[in-house]
Amino acid sequence: MSHTVVVGGGVTGLVAAHRLRARLGPDARITVVEQADRLGGKLRTVELAGTPTDVGAEAFVLRNPAAADLVGELGLGDTLIHPERAAATIRAAGRTVALPRRTFLGVPADAELVRPVLSAEGAERAAAETTLPPLEIQDDVPVGQVLAERFGRELVDHLVEPLLGGVYAGRADLLGLRATMPALVDALGPAGGSLTGAAARVLGTPAPTEKPIFGALRGGMAVLVAGLAEAADVRLGYPVRELRRGSDGWRLEIGSPGRAEVLHADAVVLAVPPPAARKLLADVVPAAATAYAGIELGSMAVLSMVLPDGVTLPDTSGVLLAVGERHADGTPFTAKAFTHTSVKWGGAPVRLRASVGRVGETELLRRDDEDLLAAVRADLAELTGVTAPPVGWAVTRWGGGLPQYGVGHTAAVSAIERAVAEVPGLAVAGASFRGVGIPACVDSATAAAHRVAAHLLQRTDAK
Fold it and tell me: In the structure, what pLDDT confidence band is assigned to residue 462 with cuts at 50, 70 and 90?
């Protein structure tokens, strides 16, 4: 009977264990080792004023069907919900307007559609992109640099930066174009070197009836975590201190110094953030460890609130804030985005969440919970007129929780994968590779599980 240890109990590790169970059968021994006292990683559901509330990832995109398919596979299809038809908005230049449609992370498929978020001069600058010499991307470049050169800085600050900030908590000038928008780069050639044309190709022809873009789960992401956890033996509160490779498999030392244990495994899947992966691979795959060092992490916080019955939020799914937006008195906004949760997903009570913090905003994220609440409530009052104090609230800080897909990220990922591919019985997976969302993590976990399962099954056949 084979034994596989999955290091990391976030969604990636849990999906890897689930896929391994399906491939290897009920007799295989599969252990998930997680240093925290709970499973789920960036999926976390808490009770807030008696309501299950996601304080990490709250939804997944449906363009990649991996997450929705997994929900169905687990028999959880009846929990899948889609947003109500409330439109998203953006606050730019002191005005709150509808978020322009048909943009790819802010890159417009038609420059006319982004006029409402730009000045007259900025709109003309964006419209001129199609008249510029054809763009060719040889080496990786910062998103902010190339888009500012093609569309003008205003489009970057008013649209691209807020959208990228929501995904990565990063800065457009630090994120790499190839890593964050690979489909756009691939479409450049067929589009004749125009980013506007490339966005149009990626987005395709508008469908006659609009399909949902996002999905979430009734009861929160805890439903998914619980469904996945059944596939493996789980060891919570056990950091992996050391990983060694021997002639007959793998040796893992787990636990704190005073109560360390040793696990022996035939295969290992590492589904942990870059710093942990770098440490564990330093001796067994040093080239991969070195490449992991090229992936930086960002931090942010989520402030979740339940408001009193009778409070009315705007009939929108939420609002993004452009770079540099300020209150009427000149003070900067604290939040970078608000989600009107009860409007977006339906149901009671009145709920919303605010996202706070981007890369480089360390002082902001060091403010205590009460201070953040006061600042975010001031933002909410300015944007919506809602001043009622919450009947329940929570600040959840995700320190170093978001991989930054910087310039050169794709090269670092390729180097990690090449080095690990040379080591039988080892696989790596996670949000650090080809997407930070749940569907990308599912894909990454599935590929890692298939690699390890193929190795184990080949070994069994050879005996």
Answer: low
Closest to 81 (Cα-Cα) out of 208, 230, 212, 183? 212
Q: What is the pTM of this model?
A: 0.95
Which range, of 18-22, 118-122, 141-145, 201-205, averages the lowest pLDDT?
201-205
pLDDT of residue 192: 96
Residue-wise pLDDT for 58-70, tens only, equals: 999 999 999 999 9
For 299-319, what is the mean pLDDT? 96
List, in order of start, the domains of the chain with CATH numbers: 3-41+222-295+405-462 (3.50.50.60), 45-86+296-404 (3.90.660.20), 103-202 (1.10.3110.10)
pLDDT, position 116: 95
* Residue from 108, 66, 123 nearest 202 by CA: 108
- 16: Cα separation from own chain's centroid: 18
